[in-house]
Amino acid sequence: MTRSALNRLGELERAVMDEVWQANGEDACPISVRQVQGRLGDARPLAYTTVMTVMTRLLDKGLLTRTKHGRAFLYAPVTTRELLSATTMHDQLQGMDRVERRAALTHFLDHASAEDLRDLREALDEAERQLPGRLARLG
């Protein structure tokens, strides 16, 4: 998977990935270009070739896999939206020193809702509970 791929997705690429992820969650994956075009529906009336081009770009970016099925190709996501988002966030923080990283996290939290903060606290609690096991596996 391409690093920080989520940051480099255009609006249409995100819309297509949303449909592929949704189909994956519904166990309707892999999915064809025609099916994605239909899922985008009236909200985004797009030509078949436009959707095919976008899905090929997503394949080239390492976000989709493709298998031949008859005369058509079927596509599936390489990873979940959540894992891709987490990887993107981690990649963004990796190149920073401690001061920059803390400032970025503080700016993020400045815009977090009460619900976001609750979710973050729960995730931190879970990460702390799992830390001894993760450290044991590393050592």
Separation of termini? Answer: 27 Å
**Structural class by helix and strand composition:** mainly alpha
CATH superfamily of the largest domain: Winged helix-like DNA-binding domain superfamily/Winged helix DNA-binding domain
The CATH class name of the largest domain reads: Mainly Alpha
Task: Predict the CATH topology of the largest domain.
Answer: Arc Repressor Mutant, subunit A
**Total number of domains:** 2
Strand elements, count: 3
Strand content: 5-15%
* Spatial arrangement of strands, main beta sheet: 1-3-2
Percentage of helical residues? 55-70%
In the predicted model, the low-confidence regions spanning at least 5 consecutive residues are none
- The backbone outline, from C-alpha atoms, is elongated
Radius of gyration: 19 Å
Average residue-wise pLDDT: 88
Order of helices and strands: HEHHEEHHH
Q: If helices are DSSP runs of H or I spanning 4 or more residues, what is the number of helices?
A: 6
Question: What's the main sheet like?
Answer: 3 strands, antiparallel
CATH architecture of the largest domain: Orthogonal Bundle
